[in-house]
Amino acid sequence: MQMQRNQSQDWWRTSTVYQVYPKSFNDTTGSGTGDIRGLTEKLDYIKGLGIDIVWLQPVYVSPQNDNGYDVADYYNIDPAYGTMEDFDELVHELKKRNMHLMIDIVVNHSSTEHHWFKEARSSRDNPYRDYYIWKDPAEDGGPPNNWQSKFGGPAWQFDEGTGQYFLTLFDKTQADLNWENEKVRQEVVDLLTFWAKKGVDGFRMDVINLISKDQCFPNDDGSIPPGDGRKFYTDGPRVHEYVKELNEKVFRPYNIITVGEMSSTTLAHCIRYSNPEEHEFSMTFNFHHLKVDYPNGQKWELKPYDFEELKTVLSDWQIGMQEGGGWNALFWNNHDQPRALTRFTDDDEYRIESAKLLATTLHGLQGTPYVYQGEEIGMPDPKWKDISEFRDIESRNMYDILLKRGKTPEEAAHIVSVRSRDNSRLPMLWDDSDQAGFTSGTPWIKIDERYPHINAKAQVEDDDSIYHHYRKLIELRKELPVLIDGKYIRLDESHPQIYAYARINEEESIVVISNFSKEEATFELPEWFSVGLSRASRVKLLIGNTDEEPVLSKRMNIQPYGSYMWLIKNS
């Protein structure tokens, strides 16, 4: 049965993925950090949602400068998370439940603690030297070019022992691998094969579209914002060649589900990455919809999000990927983003309605939905009290940089509190017991103090909860072909409060209407759609988030943060 399912080329299109940030999920040892056995312990909770695929973030040996995305050993489990036996038990227990494991693969860079890099920096003649990207200093002795790290500061680190700089697009302890070197590519094939043979069913490829750099390594003239060098390594010259090689040697032979995380990418490239005829990835993440509150593309500045831009970006990617034969990975939340509940809606008075609205809006789109831990119970961003509460390296770096740019400590702390990746990294709220049931020890980062009334136990027991709203949406994806193959058509015309769209195939349609405001909204369906609606043989409300059960009609009043999905049987 398992093999038959894996051999179906697109079974994952009707599936939903649950993302686990292990450090903050469930601690079984009292260490204050989550572990692999903590995930295994909660599989029935995840299965109860209807989840098919669990994405486990990095649990490899790591110095944890970037929470495990700085890998020091690709073949072993970090003792902080458990043992390889624990990992094997997790795979076994998932398969018992007919569920699948997706793991993070971080191969744009490795930790400087990896033995490859230790060898590489030992001398210029070492065979591992060419595993990384080394350049001589500029004429003034400074970095080879003006590229900037995504975590702040120059993207180059000077190695005094060998007199050259090495490239670090992220943290200074994350050295970029040289994919021009065939031996590096073979190392990646080998490590992917190792995990595939252990029973892993999927790979999430971290910042994979950055692996091919312009080999001239030119200065960025700033003509294309933000002018930090990314135009010379984003979707680089050989990236599709490299991904096809991985597909040929690992993904296809082992029937692996893959999702590429695409940093600052384009629609055209994502079509290529995810169109089955290209033999690259199953699907792709892009982040354009999560930049609609970045003034001029600047993450560390603040402005209210642009609702019209949000709808336009989502629509453009729906239409473009459909027309090009690509496939979206759908998400509002992940470990690198503030919680969408706080960011785009109301996480206080209308928290429950808002969480359900975001779920309904996303799960009606075409693609494979991803649920990030805590999203399904409506976890909001925490209330930060002091900069000392943050643990994220990017947030700490940016606080100092903002001070140097002239921000007051209060201004810098506020910006970090809004933008920090730590917003989504607080521990999962399991119940109303001490430390929210996450640990019996001292948690590595603070617990959201609202856990007595926001927790998983209470939601599982309440049939009208956010958790059960997600469960129903996940069921609908398996039941309704229109959610998989229906053509996307936007129905609102720049409405200041409403996002409305339809998905249409020959047999049926769905309509999703969501009011992203705390004021009641009036909405009129387009005339052409209303005519078709009058001819429908049956219209049924599939799911809503208020006590009201509105009838789909040409003119409607939608309650504050009201969100509904209807099924229309075409006559």
Architecture overview:
The structure is a single chain. By secondary structure, this protein is α/β, with parallel strands linked by helices. The chain folds into four domains: 2-109 and 182-389 and 420-472, Glycosidases (TIM Barrel, Alpha-Beta Barrel), CATH 3.20.20; 115-176, Oligo-1,6-glucosidase, domain 2; 390-419, no CATH class; 486-569, Sandwich (Immunoglobulin-like). Helix content is 29%, strand content 17%. It contains 17 helices and 22 strands. It has helices at residues 2-7, 36-41, 43-49, 84-96, 115-120, 182-197, 239-251, 267-274, 307-324, 340-344, 351-363, 393-404, 409-419, 456-460, 466-479, 482-485, 527-534; strands at 17-20, 53-56, 60-61, 73-77, 100-105, 109-111, 134-135, 156-159, 164-167, 174-176, 202-205, 257-261, 283-285, 329-330, 368-372, 487-490, 498-504, 508-515, 521-524, 538-544, 555-558, 563-569. The strands form six sheets. Strands 13-12-11-5-2-1-15-14 form an eight-stranded parallel β-sheet. The chain has a five-stranded antiparallel β-sheet with strand order 16-17-18-22-20. Helix 6 runs parallel beside helix 7 (239-251) and helix 8 (267-274) crosses helix 9. The longest helix is centred in the middle third of the chain and has 18 residues, at 307-324. The chain is globular and about 75 Å long. The model is unreliable at 1-7 (pLDDT under 50).
